[in-house]
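Let us work through a complete example step by step.
Step 1: write down the sequence.
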Amino acid sequence: MSENCTHDCGSCSANCASREGGAPDFSAKANAHSRVKKVIGVVSGKGGVGKSMVTSLLSVLLRRRGLQTAILDADITGPSIPKAFGVKEQLMASDEGIYPASSITGIRMVSLNLLLDNETDPVVWRGPVIAGTVKQFWTDVMWGDVDFMFVDMPPGTGDVPLTVFQSLPVDGILIVTSPQELVGMIVEKAVHMAQMMNIPVLGIVENMAYFQCDECGKRHYIFGQSHLAEIAARNDIAVTAQMPMAPALAAACDSGRIEMVEADWLDGVADALQKL
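Step 2: predict the structure and record it as tokens.
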């Protein structure tokens, strides 16, 4: 028995010899009306680092390149994807499944906030119910033809990331972080979890890396010098990107206009995804 064993095969990532008949298969079958080519998880070790913003920007960027993109908002207790896109209509369903919502440029999305009567209503659920809901977003939603689906996950290494890694055909993850040294340590927890689940780490995005003065163009490192290159090298991660503290970007998210943002910060990440 592995020292990491939790004695519950349904929620444990350990590879134990004590699993009878080998490791159980928790993979979930997509809806019959879904044809998703690539599934990319967007994760973070802690909250408040801009994971949903990176998810949104990448989906917008690849959509501009002519690809069909979708977002599965797996952050059930803190969903923010619909607000960034200005999407408010509730999801509809038929006997065949749930219809995803669509943004003005055709980005498909599903979020619990699009199922609530009031978007400010809290979701007071226990972990297994939350994880089950995320799985239903994969099995019950009629996603149609999608080139890249981004799964915006809650922070940490708990029930939802484990469910996504075990149940969905994840092709790789992107890790979002911020410059503080403590966050660097937390990032490696996410890296190690991905390694335990045999999920490739495709890249790291460092958000709030600097502030660039509008007047002189000088970069100011508000939270100290970046540890991005060091962390990437230590974990053999080739693709990295930095995003500044940009008030205009935050304002676009708050007003539901993220599809109007023009920026090249994530071009390298998008290039790497297209090569998958």
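Step 3: interpret the result. The CA atoms of residues 31 and 139 lie 5 Å apart.
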